[in-house]
Description:
heterodimer; A: 116 residues; Transcription Regulator spoIIAA; five-stranded mixed β-sheet; 41% helix; B: 148 residues; alpha+beta; 4 helices; globular; HATPase_C_sf (chain B); Anti-sigma regulatory factor (Ser/Thr protein kinase) (chain B); transferase (chain B)
Amino acid sequence: MDLKLDHHSEDRLTIVEVEGEIDVYTAPRLRELLIDLVNKGNFHLLVNMEKVDFLDSTGLGVLVGGLKRVRAHDGSLELVCTQERILKIFRITGLTKVFGIYASVDEAKEAHGRDK
Amino acid sequence: MATVELTFSALPAHVRTARLVATAIARRTGVEESVLDEVRLAVGEACSRAVEAHRLHCPGEPIRIELSDDLGRFEVTVTDSAPSDELEHDRGMLRIDDPLGQLPDTLMSGFGIAVIAGLADDVQVYPSPKGMRIRMSWPAAPNGLPRI
């Protein structure tokens, strides 16, 4: 399955909807979107990965790159993910300590609101 | 099942094909369904790393992947032709506890190897000036799964 990307803003939060496979072939498209969003002043990103079928280290690299970019603007990049097979790769690489990972968009929005 | 060999040019689009082939043969060889996701990810990581290395050093050379069952184990070997010294150096830069450090986000080969090590039941990495060979294996049914 190819990669589908969409995004919309709610208050200060930009929600990025990702569907399909994030690998060495498709990850550049996600990277371009994240760079574009940051360049346009969106510094608080929430990446919804609930419809992601596959994620490899190239995809992790893109997310880490996005996090570095938003942090340079005192922003945030957090994730929504409950799929065990996706969470496993975050655990193996130690990235569960780096990203805020939430069970739902609502839960992430609530946490984001508390941090305002 | 006899060994299946696949060679592909160093294009990112072919990595998905390699993943699909590996998963199909793993299933056929009798690897448990619960482990197939790990096979898919580990083979994808090894092939992605090889593709990136070839694109840097030898984009015209093919990457080879061998899949076989051997005494009840499903074994995958990914072989590339890119000198692995530089990649070894890059991997040395990665600190897994500091992924936001100096590593450019386009080069995650260190993560790739870490992921493979975390997923495969048994992994051997053989770097050399002529290329890198990554061999990994998982338990499979002794004679593969019968298919009717």
